[in-house]
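step=predict obj=AGR2 protein n=173
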Amino acid sequence: AMEKSYVSMFLLLIVISCALAKDAGKKDSKDATAKPKLPQTLSRGWGDQLIWTQTYEEALFRSKHSQKPLMIIHHLEDCPHSQALKKVFAEHKDIQKLAEKFILLNLVYETTDKNLAPDGQYVPRVLFIDPSLTVRADITGRYSNRLYAYEPSDISLLYSNMQKALKLLKTEL
């Protein structure tokens, strides 16, 4: 187990150093009068006011202990589909409000957990996990070839799937 934590620490350091390098270049262009925003590292723009977990392990732990469902968004910074979904997700007031009832995680890399890729490793894809740590493979989007993919036009379906994940929770616990 030691090696694994070293690897994740190493990855984290890489991620942090990339983020810092990016921010350093950005600072000058922003005007100094803007009020300081929360650090956006964990939200990656999916909802800067929301509380995002840092790792899959932490997310599972929090879900189990808080009895809140977990929502995992797999995406990539240079994927136009991910970017388009992120924009509508972040601007959707009802989704942002409902998201507070979830443990939240967005990932730009794949985990070793095959359960998070029931039908392949594509982005963007959104999966729900309940506090018993069961992946809700039954909560799907509208595409039969990519069950957990959502386009910007599917944002209301994603919203109702979030409601479904919360509702299932109440009936089953």
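step=describe
Residues 56-127+151-166 form a domain with the Glutaredoxin fold (CATH 3.40.30.10).
step=end
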